[in-house]
Amino acid sequence: MVKERARILVVGGGYVGMYTALRLQRRLKRELERGEVEITVVTPDPYMTYQPFLPEAAAGAISPRHVVVPLRRVLDRCRIVIGEATAVDHAKRTATITTLATEEEGTGGQQLTYDELVLAPGSVSRTLPIPGLADHGIGFKTVEEAIGLRNHVIEQMDIASSTRDPAIRDAALTFVFVGGGFAGVEALGELEDMARYAARYYHNIRPEDMKWILVEASDRILPEVGEEMGRYTVTELRRRNIDVRLQTRLESCADRVAVLSDGARFPTRTVVWTAGVKPHPVLAATDLPRNDRGRLRCTAELSVEGATHAWAAGDAAAVPDVTAGEPGRECAPNAQHALRQAKVLADNIVHTLRDEPLRTYEHAYAGSVASLGLHKGVAHVYGRKLKGYPAWFMHRAYHLSRVPTFNRKARVLAEWTLAGLFKREIVSLGSLEHPRAEFELAAGGKPSQDPPHNPKGSS
């Protein structure tokens, strides 16, 4: 039994936010029924996105709706508020929240009071002041971006197939990916695989007509899988005629021309930006301590340093790695740590409410797996190195075991099974991004090319 009524506020509905709330509602089931505890989750989306499946969703191997987990169904004992936390005053135990309703009402943000705070807003894309990037760049952090990129790639193939202008055709069939981490490499691998397959249905496009370029500022890609597997990945991508440029930066993409630091220039209509992330801006609008990278300074128990009743994990938190042999090391901000940290964080909140000792987060990094397209992958797990089909199979098996809910596991497995029996779908549904365009034209107006309202804001 808890000592007194507790209001728990969870900011963010991603890995940490959803799994923390899920574990809290299980462990505090009786307290929730008695009204002794209240859990509120503030999130910009009514779903949690399982990001490791975004590349397969972009390639059409998984339906977009199976990459997301509906929070209202999973967190049925929690109060779900669709909106954003714009500021937190932990000294007063209040958070300023904006929702779709507050925008309509024009009354400004509303104040939520709490007793225990979990800050897990995740991260946003880290961009640089590169000319043309804001106008032409495409991100790869959300399911909307993944499906939009799939539609865009197929649309470019349609343009190339129908134009008589060789310059337009060349630009349409040139795809530049910036960033050699998991997001960039897996997105490139899956989409190149899809486009190669789709080319057989175009009478005048061959796979070798397309240019796929990976730009990475450092001297290696996929550092998480180790140097040897990173070199293998470069070899495998180049064998597929993908131009991998290491120690190279994107300097401009203005006027639809990608200019690289090595002097190369590529007219292109596709620049995908996956070059890192940064902490969510809401962290700067709190009175909680942050490190030089903008992440919250945390203890090994996942509480915020010097702030009682404040907790954090995942991308937003700088958590000490107690398994490291050297002091000062921090846990990597990846999904593997986030999932495990969420469980310890939820347990420690329960321990705090029940006046029990706290647990220390301790997990040695097991390794990483990456997909490079259908039946292709690399893995470095528990010291063992795998490549090709075994690594690809391990990638699928691991993430199938980690995707939340039995419902999603069954649906993803069914889609994979059907995909093995039937041909790929190569349909572009780009018109979904402007659903009112045809009606506006029929009504005598000019179709709007503005995207639909985005509750997430500019971030």
TrEMBL record:
EC number: 1.6.5.-
Keyword Oxidoreductase: yes
Xref: SUPFAM superfamilies: FAD/NAD(P)-binding domain (SSF51905)
Keyword Transmembrane helix: no
Database matches in InterPro entries: FAD/NAD-bd_sf, FAD/NAD-binding_dom, NDH-2
Domain FAD/NAD(P)-binding: 7-338
Source organism: Streptomyces coeruleorubidus
Domain of life: Bacteria
Region spans: Disordered: 439-459
Designated name of the protein: NAD(P)/FAD-dependent oxidoreductase
